[in-house]
Amino acid sequence: MERKKIIHIDMDYFFAQVEERDNPSLRDKPVAIGSAHAKRGVLCTSNYIARKYGVKSAMPTAQALKLCPHLVLVSPVFSKYQEASRAVFKLFETFTDKIQKLSIDEAYLDVTDCELFNNDAIKIAKEIKRLVFESTGLTCSAGVSFNKLLAKIGSDLYKPNGLAVLRSENIEQKISHFPISYLRGVGKVTQKKMNDEGLYTFGDVQKREKLSLINSYGSFGPTLFDFCRGVDHRDVECGTERKSLSVENTFADDHTDKEVLSLKLYDCFAEMKERLQKHKNRQIKAIVVTIRYDDFSRVTIERALNVDIENYNKLLEIKLQQRQSPIRLLGVGVRFFSHSQTGQLEFDLSA
Ligand code: TTP
Ligand code: MG
Fold it and tell me: Across the strands, what pairs with 245?
């Protein structure tokens, strides 16, 4: 059986890192994200300096301030995190369509069929990390392995800015020292019960018979039996079909010149056309141009027009006439009809 190639990506101290990026004076201070006004609330997350004091996600703000009185509290601005998240997930699409979003800052990618980098999953993961940093200024951690369980464990091993590879050779033995808290599905209650039975590591669980695990943990028993050996057959579940495809380019310098922008637009267009090859079966609903100005504000314009460069230029011109600010990012894209919509069309035609 051919092994899958799975990458799990998780942004490092996500909300706090975005705030540090936007205010570098925070970088050498313990920082937590949570309402600075409502001190009765709980924290969203904290940076790694604050974590040394025990300050962490979901902790009441008051408790965190007791542990670390000089903690800098920053109120969350969710739109910023969403924007960074969007950029990161867009990037993932360069490598595969098989993306399972787990949260705003976390995803599985199945790169088994990715032809880039000679199908070398480690090189792909490194490139993803590089591109994530290049496009958002943020670091993430990656786990590379042959299933979801191990990829996810891997992304957590060397955080922040880590990369771990868990290969299949001798996997049972390689993971035998991992604590059972690494096992997906083992929460506080199960962990306590397992500890009471003398189970602390994957290796401890490996020594138990499947039946005995079923006796103790019911339907979770067989999963435990597999997981502690690094066996996990779950697929990356992509959920919804791709709704759009786009190529964006952030410039080294901001531009206002129409001709320069038109050339840049063409570069994006050429790459997008190339990528559209893989989606020949999809019907295009609209073409889209995206612009980000030097103040980071982002606008898009879309029209139901054919995918040719003249039409993209027309959309760009409309936007250039509306606002003359320097531009730092340009993108072109298409939006697809959903399969169900196109399916309906075919049905109508044949009826
Ligand atoms: P996580 O990935 O769990 O945490 P993190 O990215 O802050 O830190 P790590 O380096 O360990 O990955 O969560 C991602 C974001 O989700 C986090 O930055 C803030 C938000 N979040 C909450 O708002 N409340 C919570 O309880 C958790 C766990 C996360
Ligand atoms: Mg994270």
Answer: 334
Asked if 106 is an active-site residue, the reply is: yes
Question: Measured between alpha carbons, how far is residue 68 from residues 31, 39, 44, 347 in Å?
Answer: 10, 14, 16, 64
Is residue 81 in contact with ligand 1, taking CB distance under 6 Å? no
Nearest CA residue ID for atom 23, ligand 1: 44
Preceding peptide of 160 cis, ω within 30°: yes
Distance CA 140, CA 233 (A): 25
pLDDT tens digits for range 195-250: 999 999 999 999 999 999 999 999 899 999 999 999 999 999 887 667 899 999 98
Ligand 1 atom at minimal distance to the Cα of residue 46: 7
Question: b/e map of 209-245 (b: 16 or more CB within 10 Å)?
Answer: eeeebeebbeebbebbbebbbbebeeebeeeeeeeeb
- From CA 247, how far away is CA 268, in angstroms rounded? 6
What's the pTM value of the predicted model, to 2 decimals? 0.71
From the CB of 94, is ligand 1 less than 6 Å away? no
